[in-house]
């Protein structure tokens, strides 16, 4: 190689100018989420947030991604919903522990940066942050040539919330006989996509633009339905002192997530048939003849959150949910765990 040859960063695949173009729109969208607690602008080396309004605050944090739902975004060319899913997933994770979200940070990494795609992804993040009263306080946009396939990216989120120590939901007061209420999901949310994509696209031969009669929409539209936020109903029940515990139904389904809120020695009886299983789950089970155990541990089956409420207060809790126009179902009850049985037992509703 001749000594006078000049090699720039762009020759290695990193385009600083494209990053600057993306940052302009990202700053604008992030600022639209700022509240009075935000003390620094986007672009600072670190984000600063002033915590106020709590007597004995406990910070609650979580980190998550969108998983292979991103593959559906790549196939459809639609990138404005996965950011919403990311934020809502993280919000739910801390809300079921009693926390209100304060601020959110994102990590967006790509092989070759495309400013419009980055802006679309961040627009979904900003939209969900505004809807949840959460500041998009910072993040990282990384261009890493050779690490990702063309047109693909990865996305992760980090959330911090706060709760009064006395109002943390740790499930300690849950007791046998408490009622379990389920709040409906919109669909797969952000879990089970590896199996769903295999069944729909490989086994059944659908494309993302194929209209699926059982779903009333295309396969892509079904799989890109936004992960629902349950912040409002959770905050309402916590504020009224009606909620003993809550479980976000994500990877592992009802089987693995419900016990996470239960004290030792307790289990959950889940009444199958007590809520309408969404058509997408029935379709997936039929395509793959998926065994019940695997089915219940892969998908949420139409329930996004399960709430534990004392039997004496369930009428008030249901009235509060109705006031918010939040649909719900009585999906089971808390019971004493039985030796040799799992911590979730599925029972047909008609046998109760």
Characterization of this structure:
With 352 residues, this protein is α+β, with helices and mostly antiparallel strands. The protein folds into 2 domains: 14-167, 60s Ribosomal Protein L30, Chain: A; 179-351, Phosphoribosyl-aminoimidazole Synthetase, Chain A, domain 2, CATH 3.90.650. Helix content is 32%, strand content 23%. It has 11 helices and 12 strands. It has helices at 16-31, 69-76, 82-95, 115-131, 193-203, 219-223, 231-239, 253-257, 279-288, 292-298, 314-323; strands at 57-65, 100-110, 135-143, 153-164, 179-184, 211-212, 217-218, 245-248, 266-272, 303-309, 329-336, 344-348. The strands form 3 sheets. Strands 8-10-5-11-9-12 form a 6-stranded mixed β-sheet. Strands 1-4-2-3 form a 4-stranded mixed β-sheet, with helices on one face. The protein is globular. The relative contact order is 0.15.
- What is the percentage of strand-forming residues? 15-25%
Spatial ordering of strands, largest sheet? 8-10-5-11-9-12
CATH superfamily of the largest domain: PurM-like C-terminal domain
Q: In total, how many beta strands?
A: 12
Number of helices: 11
Domain tally: 2
CATH C-level category of the largest domain: Alpha Beta
Please identify the structural class as seen in this structure: alpha+beta
Helical percent range? 25-40%
């Amino acid at each position: 190689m001749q000594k006078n040859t000049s090699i720039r960063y762009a020759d290695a695949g990193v385009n600083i100018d494209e990053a600057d173009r993306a940052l302009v729109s990202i700053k604008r969208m992030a600022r639209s989420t700022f509240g009075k607690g935000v003390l620094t602008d986007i672009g600072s080396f670190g984000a600063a947030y002033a915590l106020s309004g709590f007597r004995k605050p406990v910070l609650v944090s979580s980190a998550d991604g969108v998983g292979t739902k991103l593959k559906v975004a790549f196939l459809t060319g639609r990138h404005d919903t996965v950011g919403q899913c990311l934020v809502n997933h993280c919000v739910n994770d801390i809300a079921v522990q009693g926390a209100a979200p304060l601020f959110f940070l994102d990590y967006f990494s790509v092989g070759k940066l495309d400013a419009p795609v980055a802006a679309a992804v961040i627009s979904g993040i900003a939209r969900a942050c505004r809807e949840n009263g959460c500041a998009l306080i910072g993040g990282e946009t990384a261009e890493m040539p050779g690490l990702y396939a063309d047109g693909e990216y990865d996305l992760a989120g980090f959330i911090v919330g706060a709760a009064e120590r006395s109002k943390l939901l740790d499930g300690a007061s849950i007791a046998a006989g408490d009622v379990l209420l389920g709040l409906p999901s919109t669909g797969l949310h952000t879990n089970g996509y590896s199996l769903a994509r295999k069944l729909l696209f490989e086994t059944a031969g659908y494309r993302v633009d194929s209209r699926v009669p059982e779903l009333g929409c295309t396969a892509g539209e079904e799989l890109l339905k936004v992960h629902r936020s349950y912040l409002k109903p959770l905050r309402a029940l916590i504020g009224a002192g009606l909620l003993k515990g809550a479980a976000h139904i994500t990877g592992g389904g009802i089987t693995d997530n419900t016990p996470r809120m239960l004290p030792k020695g307790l289990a959950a009886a889940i009444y199958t048939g007590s809520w309408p299983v969404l058509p997408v789950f029935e379709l997936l089970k039929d395509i793959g003849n998926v065994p019940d155990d695997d089915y219940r541990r892969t998908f949420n089956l139409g329930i996004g959150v399960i709430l534990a409420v004392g039997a004496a207060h369930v009428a008030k809790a249901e009235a509060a949910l109705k006031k918010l126009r939040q649909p719900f179902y009585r999906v089971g009850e808390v019971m004493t765990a039985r030796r040799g049985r799992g911590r979730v037992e599925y029972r047909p509703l008609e046998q109760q």
